[in-house]
Amino acid sequence: MSGTVGYSLKGLDVEITRALRGLNQDAVVGARVAQGGWEFLEAREEEKREIVEAWHEIIVPILDREGGNGKGKGKGKADINEQGR
After folding, report:
1. Per-residue pLDDT in tens (0 to 9) along the chain, 85 residues
2. Can you give the chain as a three-state secondary structure string?
3. In the Cβ-directed half-sphere of 52, how many Cα atoms lie within 13 Å?
4. Which residues neighbour 73 within 8 Å (Cβ) at sequence distance 6 or greater?
5. Please, what's the b/e burial string for 21-41 (b: 16 or more CB within 10 A of its CB; e: otherwise)?
6. Which of 16, 66, 69, 76 is most buried (CB neighbours < 10 A)?
C-alpha cells in the first residue's frame, strides 16, 4: 500500500519540479534579454551597427524560415532598420 502512495507522490514531485524548472528558465531568458537591451542602449554607434548586422545575418533568416518574427514572412532588412532607428 505504501508503495502505491509513494509512487504517486513521486510523480507529483516530478511534475512540480518540471513546472518550476520552466519558470526558472523563463526568468533567465527574460533577464538575458533585458541585459542585452541595456547593453545595446549603452553601446557606441559602431557596436550597434555590428549588432544589427549580426542580427540580420543570423537571427532574421531563422525567424523568417520559422515564421516567428511576429510580422509574417519576408520582413526585410530595410524594414527592420527603419523601425529600429
Report:
1. 566 666 677 777 787 777 777 777 788 888 888 998 999 999 999 999 998 999 889 988 888 888 865 554 444 444 444 444 4
2. CHHHHHHHHHHHHHHHHHHHHHHHHHHHHHHHHHHHHHHHHHCCHHHHHHHHHHHHHHHHHHHHHHCCCCCCCCCCHHHHHHHHC
3. 18
4. 64, 67
5. eeeeeeeeeeeeeeeeeeeee
6. 69
